[in-house]
């Protein structure tokens, strides 16, 4: 397996892994166990990765972090709305 | 601000952002709202990032993902133990 495929697979998984969390939140609206601080910091970090990706013109960084940011902001939104 | 600093700050934040979640789990053991699938996939993706970092010899990738993997495995452990 080409090592670049390992990196690409890693990027895809760490981007789309948040979908089950979003589905769970949509179904249960149960947010008590979720840390707002962790998810808010994560969103901040991902936004900085996006800025970095834009600055160096890296399409994989831009794409992965734009999607991840949307997913994490949805999680933060649920936490703020239902806690 | 040098753009490399933005990337480094992004790496530090997306690594250590999970500490508040771990502290919350240690204090409350409340795991119901947390998605096991999301965190297990995230751990898998981070492990692949670590493999990729080792393969290309990137110290920042290795360091950040090794720490993140430890943090996320702690979260997965709490989820498995207290749900």
Oligomer: homodimer
Q: In one word, what is the shape of chain A?
A: globular
Order of helices and strands of chain A: HHHH
Secondary structural class of chain A? mainly alpha
How far apart lie the N and C ends of chain A? 45 Å
Query: Radius of gyration of chain A, Cα only, in angstroms?
Result: 14 Å
Helicity of chain A, as a percent range: over 70%
Number of helix segments of chain A?
A: 4
Low-pLDDT sequence parts of chain A? none
**Beta-strand proportion of chain A:** under 5%
Identify the most extensive interface between protein chains.
A-B, 39 and 39 residues
Number of domains of chain A: 1
Mean pLDDT of chain A: 96
User: What is the architecture of chain A at the second tier of CATH?
Assistant: Up-down Bundle
How many individual β-strands of chain A?
0
CATH overall fold name of chain A: Monooxygenase
CATH C-level label of chain A? Mainly Alpha
How would you sum up the major sheet of chain A? none
Could you explain the architecture of this structure?
Two copies of one chain form a homodimer. The first copy, chain A, is mainly α. Chain A has a single domain (3-81), classed as Up-down Bundle (Monooxygenase). Chain A contains four helices and no strands. The first copy, chain A, has helices at residues 3-16, 19-28, 36-56, 59-81. The longest helix of chain A is centred in the C-terminal third of the chain and has 23 residues, at 59-81. Chain A is globular, with a radius of gyration of 14 Å. Chain A starts with a helix and ends with a helix. The interface between A and B is large, with 39 and 39 residues.
